[in-house]
Amino acid sequence: MSKPVIVVVAAGPGVSGSVARRFAEDGHDVGLIGIDDGPLAELKASIDGADVQTVVADLTDTESATHAIRTLGDHFGRIDVLHFNPSAFREKDPLELTVPELLQDVALGVGGLLTAVQAARPYLSRGGRVTATGSMAADQPWHRAASLGVQKAGLRNLVLSLDKTLEPDGIRAVSVTVRGTLAREGAFTPDRVAEAIHAAATQDEAGWQAEVPYSG
Fold this sequence. Notes:
Layout: E1 5-9, H1 15-25, E2 29-34, H2 37-45, E3 52-56, H3 62-76, E4 81-84, H4 99-120, E5 129-135, H5 146-166, E6 172-178, H6 190-201, E7 211-214
Parallel strand pairs: 1-2, 1-4, 2-3, 4-5, 5-6, 6-7
Protein name: NAD(P)-dependent dehydrogenase (Short-subunit alcohol dehydrogenase family)
GO molecular function, one term: oxidoreductase activity
Family: Belongs to the short-chain dehydrogenases/reductases (SDR) family.
């Protein structure tokens, strides 16, 4: 029987990388999707004991992102966990931010999840999980990065809808709302956040929560 598989969308050196390593430690093979070959290669080298495959894709390009997911799904023959991590940080307040800029950011931070799940659905089966890195910006946006709060609020909303849609097939979705600032030490290191995401993905389905806060 093949090993379970996690596919990490927007994989890199931060939380997404820690998520990939945490699930590899738990016995998963790993698919990594990112915008740049260099960081993907570095992350791949940091993961032991797993079949690690990488694909470069522009997540705002529906065709490119769909092809990346399907390439990994075809290679492994399954996807058990789909982790969505990206967001766009643009330091502009609501009076500076243009509508095209807002839509561009939302296309990455929210639309990318829609593309990823639709592409991954044929490879997800009962017990499959969709996880996303949420943020307190959904509730407490910083006005100087107005589009980020919109992305994170939209991401959480979409995860809730995905969870209800996928539940009849035994697949669940969860957003982990990180209520703190990422740091190299303390409760909000990438590894600690990744542990919270792993715990959310493996929670008891009988008491499933589609949004899980992480406050350290």
